[in-house]
Amino acid sequence: MHIRKIRKALEGIKEYVPGKNIEDAASRYGIDERDIIKLSSNENPYPPSRRVIEAIKSSAGKINFYPDPNTKKLYGVISGYTGLPEENVFVGAGVDGVLDTLMRVFIEAGEEVIIPIPTFSYYEITSIVHGAIPLFLKMDDNFSIFSDEILKKADREKAKMTIICSPNNPTGNIFPKKELIKILDAFDGIVLLDEAYAEFSNYTYIDLVDQYDNLIVLRTLSKAFGIAGMRVGYALLPEWIKKACLKVATPFSIGYLSIEAAYASLNDLEYLRCVVDKIKKGRRYLEDNIPFKTFPSEANFVLVDVSPLESSFAMEELMKKGLIVRDCSSFRGIGKNFIRISVGREEDNRRVVDALKEIFEELH
After folding, report:
1. Are 201 and 298 in contact (CB under 8 A)?
2. How far is CA 325 from its chain centroid?
3. CB-CB contact of 133 with 112 (8 Å)
4. Quick one: pLDDT band at residue 342, thresholds 50, 70, 90?
């Protein structure tokens, strides 16, 4: 007999749905893995810089030791990159790991977290896991939402936290700075601003961190820096919040090689600029040439409305052609007609545009 010990709160959580992988497409349609392009997970299509590869290789012989959990050199280089003091930097195992730590710091069981939707589904998952009640606010047809709506919801429900993603995943749009400031001025809870895609955008609000003691900005090295497999994220936050994070953070959450890779990445900003320029150029190409409706993006992906097709059908048709994109129907509040396409290399982008043109022409 099995004794039920799993927490009841987990019964209402839907498992996180990642993008399809190359093995899925290869086995389902009998396609050689070498002919498949994965554009479903907002990964960087370009490998990390040579400095990163060399740093990993030269450090591999030291992984029998625990890493320094508060490594001065990593905190120092993040401080130099962002322009904020080390006292305002907290590092964790990806944005997800940092977010989990912040939930431990702030959330009491039964408190509420405001989440504008559609957005990254892990916000909902970690809120529920930590005992919070997520309060969803649906964006309009252009995926905009305004401070008045958030503040009204926060006041009525006495919310503890608001999570905003800018640029937003999966829509690609930014949250206006003036709207953010209105929330920071009026909301007595914590505002988490996820800027995971900030390097691809012309907008960042990290300058507000030292002006507001209720703002936390999340960043990652998984996207523009191209080290998603190393799982390094960080928060820019008031010093009093950092001190609380250090009390509850998982010990040694970032591996030795991850620290070395992150340090090398942040010391090769010329390579970063080169990669970001390529991705921005690819983004413009997708927005200008995809025959279906696209939405302006400030990230490394483009949201596509494939109406009258359903997203699941469009995804499968592209997968038959060896192209993996993201069916967005698993994102709460977005509906069944949207796919998200990560920006690839130049040849990848041409191939996905050609495939979508074929699908579009079959409709007309």
Report:
1. yes
2. 16
3. yes
4. very high
Distance between CA 6 and CA 350 in Å, rounded?
47
pTM of the model: 0.94
Of 173, 57, 45, nearest to 164 by C-alpha is: 173
Q: Give the pLDDT confidence score for residue 2 in this predicted structure.
A: 55
Token digits of residue 92: 């964790």
SS3 of 292-350: the string is CEECCCCCCEEEEECCCCCHHHHHHHHHHCCEECEEHHHCCCCCCCEEEEECCCHHHHH
Q: Domain 50-268 is of which CATH architecture?
A: 3-Layer(aba) Sandwich (3.40)
Per the structure block, which two tokens stand in for 179? 């709207």
- pLDDT confidence tier of residue 6, bands split at 50, 70 and 90: confident
Q: How far apart are CA 165 and CA 283, in angstroms?
A: 19
- Give me the architecture of the 8-47+270-363 domain, per CATH: Alpha-Beta Complex (3.90)
Q: Do domains 8-47+270-363 and 50-268 have the same CATH topology?
A: no
Q: What is the predicted pLDDT for the residue at 184?
A: 97
Structure tokens at 39: 């554009």
